[in-house]
Amino acid sequence: ETGVTQSPTHLIKTRGQQVTLRCSSQSGHNTVSWYQQALGQGPQFIFQYYREEENGRGNFPPRFSGLQFPNYSSELNVNALELDDSALYLCASSSAGTGRNNEKLFFGSGTQLSVL
Amino acid sequence: GESVGLHLPTLSVQEGDNSIINCAYSNSASDYFIWYKQESGKGPQFIIDIRSNMDKRQGQRVTVLLNKTVKHLSLQIAATQPGDSAVYFCAERTGGFKTIFGAGTRLFVKA
């Protein structure tokens, strides 16, 4: 059984640029969630994908978007990067699906994004 | 509003002692709670969970207590070891898809 993998591990961008982060879900998991974790804070929910569609979103602007592919892997895209976007971006997979509760999240090690 | 908070940002314990990490939640509709451990350079790792119809749940060296009356959650770690040093997050789900995390408590284990 393979765990959640994210790439790249570190990334440096400048303000205004666009970035794409990638995530491969754990074997057997069909749902992917993305979180933003600022230094010294808890992870903040960005959105969740199930069956290639976004089925929930946190308080993030539209310039944060995502995709999920048939193999359940996922991408997080951020346009028009701002300095405050600097954070650790975490991907988590689960077998929750739509509306199911009580499902554990399995996290990758994250992508550390620095916006200069 | 939705929030999950922690009483203490830092906790220091002696190796071998028991640790207790506390958490307050504000959403009375939350029905599932989880504790995660995050080590440096890694993503959060599931420790233990509890449903709202339970008061206590035990795992290996860990126990989670839930007091719905005062909306309080705690994680007890027995015989704390140096490998337990990490940041611990409580999190809640309210019947949907979003897991809300608190700010975290950093646990230091002194040898």
Describe what this molecule looks like in 3D.
The complex is a heterodimer of chains A (116) and B (111). By secondary structure, chain A is an all-beta fold. Helix content of chain A is 0%, strand content 49%. Chain A has strands at 5-7, 10-13, 19-24, 31-37, 44-50, 53-57, 64-68, 74-78, 87-94, 106-107, 111-115. Chain A is globular. The relative contact order of chain A is 0.33. By secondary structure, chain B is mainly beta. Helices cover 0% and strands 55% of the residues of chain B. Chain B is built from no helices and 11 strands. Chain B has strands spanning 4-6, 10-14, 19-25, 32-38, 45-51, 56-58, 62-67, 72-77, 86-93, 99-101, 105-110. The mean pLDDT of chain B is 89. The chains are: A mainly beta (116), B mainly beta (111). The A-B interface holds A 4, 33, 35, 40-45, 48, 50, 55-56, 58, 90, 92, 96, 98-99, 101-102, 104-110 and B 4, 31-32, 34, 36, 41-46, 49, 51, 89, 91, 93, 95-104.
Distance between the termini of chain A: 38 Å
Shape of chain B: globular
Q: Which percent range fits the helix content of chain A?
A: under 10%
Our count of helices of chain A gives 0
- Secondary-structure element order of chain A, as H and E? EEEEEEEEEEE
Proportion of helical residues of chain B: under 10%
The fraction of residues assigned to DSSP E strands of chain A is: over 45%
Strand segment tally of chain B: 11
Query: Low-confidence spans of chain A: pLDDT under 50, at least 5 residues?
Result: none
Instruction: Average the pLDDT over all residues of chain B and give the rounded result.
Output: 89
Question: If helices are DSSP runs of H or I spanning 4 or more residues, what is the number of helices of chain B?
Answer: 0
N-C termini distance of chain B: 40 Å
Overall SS class of chain A: mainly beta
Using the alpha-carbon principal axes, give the shape of chain A: globular
Low-confidence stretches of chain B: none
Main interface pair? A-B, 28 and 26 residues
Quaternary state reads heterodimer
Structural class of chain B: mainly beta
